[in-house]
Amino acid sequence: MRTKLLLCLFIALVGLNTNLSAQDAADVVYMLNGETKKGKVTAVHEDNIEFIYSGEDLNYDIKKSEIAKITFSSGRTQVFNEQPAAPTAMAAPVSATTAASRKNKLAVLPFVMVSNDQGLMSEAMSGQVQQTAINSFKKNTNQVIVQEAMTTNAILLQNGLDPTSIKTMLPKDVASLLGVEFVVYGTANIEFEGTRTSGLSSTTYKNDKDKDKRKGRELTSNSSTTTTNYDTTIGLTIVSDTGSTLYSVNRNGFGSSLDTYEGTLSYLIKRCPWGTKRK
């Protein structure tokens, strides 16, 4: 009698546990945005599903286009949309250059342009200032081999780098990538300051008989000239492939024309470690 009673109690406990487990089981909806919803899928339509959260009674509509997959309480999985692959970190650019192959080579990066004139913030202007600097390094320095802009910029493009994103790399890694011992970072701050108009007036006299100015006819001519004024500051920093800063300087240009940066670059480059006027 006692054995039968224990057997009945055991069967009841197993049945209760099975019932609770069935109640605890839930459908799991995996959303494309990474969110997970647990509850019960009550209906699947052409464009949406009906869903009730665990412990609630309210029925929700969820668009299929927002769902990655559903794992039902039975264990079956239904895929609606492929989950976007997690972005992979971009590998750091790798260069096969050696210290010996980089010896005495110098590269000038595209200049970072700063201006209140959007026309001067262009890639073309950045490249123009870069080329001016390269030409000045070739003319006004000794003992360094200056890399062409085409080569430098091609390597940068192949590695998805521009004047802004290259700041995320250590200078020594930039040097290794470009295959040079020295890297020149440059900033051109060219602020538009407005225009100025100046005029000139002249008076002459004409007398066909005796050229007496008092009796002659008065001829007056006027002319005016409008100039555009800029305030220019150039910054240069030269870093070696060991990460050491060899030269860092800023200078406000002398003059107010747009091409003031040319003379300012020449002044600074002549006074760099290999410049013809270095101290």
TrEMBL record:
Alphabetic keyword roster: Signal
UniProt organism field: Leeuwenhoekiella aestuarii
Region (Disordered): 199-226
Signal peptide start-end: 1-22
Biased composition (Basic and acidic residues): 206-218
Name this protein carries in UniProt: Uncharacterized protein
